[in-house]
Write a structure and sequence with these properties.
By secondary structure, this protein is an alpha+beta fold. It contains 14 helices and 13 strands. It has 2 domains: 192 residues, no CATH class; 190 residues, BirA Bifunctional Protein, domain 2, CATH 3.30.930. It comes from Marinobacter lutaoensis.
Length: 454
């Protein structure tokens, strides 16, 4: 039996099958997760790796739920402070500890509650606070609640969405990464619970309440202010949808799909929000790029609010060993033989100010020469494979917009993206005539070589 830490007045070991009331879904979900991390080595390894904590094979993990701090002269914990969990990772003589605060459904953690837990963590030598809610974040270091930097000076603050946790479970099972058969059974049961409606875990399914007004304002050319709540909330909602897209594609491909972010945006989520709001007000377009392991290019996703269109695309460099644009596009068309051409287009870009040509894939499959420019002799240097979805009046629907984006991205990748291969220069060859000439040349004898070296 594990000994409860001295700084806790009360707390129970995390249970895989917690005995709580049906209404205590939050407590139940937290207990199932923490007990699962304690029971399945690969699960705790994957989740803690996401926040930079290494879990060795000999490390042990303690997991406690419904913890209450002891009251001391050093710090007095409010009587209603009851974090949902505590993790203690022991590696040799070293300890790493984290407080867990979980919410389900539409519940969120408040700035005031997080601040209190950060103070409690600091007072009791706890290294981190991890929140788990249905809110999404680009990275575990990007918290959905903005706090002053001084608040996390001594204690790290991380965030997992429940969808992220669920995806990690699914990945481990799909890729057969868990070795022990009993642990595989436990992980399957955990995932079964997390995927049920009773768990209170959901995915991002609608844009912000101001979305329809934003779409109408863009349509009527009304002015948008980048610092307004309607724009800020729209960008925040789009950031959540970006993360959800990554998780959806991760589950479908069985590989970890991530957002491609600028270095400064990885380090500073507030700057990312500010820059994206500024860009949206200028272009009226929402954009993101998904990085898919071993794919030919990043998968770009754009939502043009003015045109009420969704675009998915990948950009490839044209093969340099082919001279004409027609020959180059034929190289691309061969990769798209299995693609249903409906909604797909090919864009050919040429150097400088030369004309860019854009043709439906279906037409190019019948007549590749249509990609040629009528105003320029320049050869195309890049091709974009584009999938278009015209939502028209449905674009302003909060749920419909999300549903269509989440259909378009997997469809594009399944029909086209997964078949694309980047061009690579061919290996150098030895011409037969050159080889035969070299073989026919008289070779110097060993004696002649020694004389020459003398």
């Amino acid at each position: 039996m594990e000994h409860r830490p001295d700084f806790l007045r009360s707390g129970e070991p995390a249970r895989l099958i917690p005995i709580v009331s049906d209404s205590a879904r939050e407590q139940k979900s937290a207990s199932v997760l923490l007990a699962g991390m304690r029971s399945v080595y690969e699960l705790r390894q994957a989740l803690l790796k996401s926040i930079g904590v290494r879990v060795g094979a000999r490390a042990t993990l303690e997991a406690w739920t419904e913890v209450v701090f002891s009251t001391t002269d050093k710090v007095s914990a409010p009587s209603n402070d009851r974090p949902d969990g505590l993790l203690i990772l022991r590696t040799g003589k070293k300890e790493w500890k984290a407080l867990i605060e979980a919410k389900i459904g539409n519940e969120t953690v408040s700035e005031e509650q997080i601040s209190r837990y950060l103070q409690q963590a600091k007072a009791h030598g706890i290294d981190a606070v991890i929140t788990i809610t249905n809110q999404f974040s680009a990275l575990p270091t990007h918290h959905p609640v903005a706090l002053p930097k001084t608040a996390t000076k001594s204690v790290n603050l991380y965030h997992w969405s429940w969808a992220f946790v669920r995806t990690q479970c699914a990945l481990l099972l799909k890729n057969e990464d868990v070795e022990d058969e009993d642990q595989v059974f436990i992980l399957r049961e955990i995932l079964r619970y997390f995927e049920s409606d009773r768990s209170g875990i959901s995915h991002f399914d609608q844009m912000n309440p101001e979305w329809k007004d934003i779409v109408n304002k863009v349509k009527s050319n009304a002015h948008l202010t980048k610092t307004s709540d309607e724009v800020q909330n729209t960008i925040a909602a789009w950031h959540q949808e970006q993360r959800d897209l990554c998780l959806i594609m991760t589950r479908l491909t069985g590989s970890t799909v991530s957002l491609k972010l600028k270095h400064e945006h990885r380090l500073d989520p507030a700057k990312r929000l500010k820059d994206d709001a500024d860009q949206f007000c200028k272009t009226h377009t929402l954009h993101c790029a998904l990085s898919i392991p071993n794919a030919a290019a990043d998968l770009d996703v754009s939502a043009d609010v003015q045109r009420r269109m969704i675009y998915c695309s990948m950009k490839l460099a044209a093969p340099k060993d082919k001279r004409s644009t027609k020959a180059r596009v034929n190289w691309l068309l061969r990769q798209l033989r299995k693609t249903n051409p409906g909604g797909f287009f090919i864009r050919a870009t040429r150097p400088g100010k030369a004309e860019t040509t854009y043709q439906p894939l279906k037409d190019l499959q019948a007549a590749p020469e249509l990609i040629e420019s009528t105003t320029s002799n320049s050869t195309a240097t890049t091709f974009d494979v584009v999938y278009e979805v015209d939502l028209a009046g449905k674009f302003s629907g909060r749920k419909v917009f999300i549903e269509e984006v989440e259909k378009a991205v997997p469809h594009f990748y399944q029909e086209a993206g997964q078949w694309l291969k980047a061009w690579t220069p061919p290996a150098p060859k030895i011409e037969k005539q050159t080889y035969e000439s070299a073989a026919a040349e008289p070779q110097a004898s060993d004696q002649e070589e020694r004389q020459a070296s003398d």
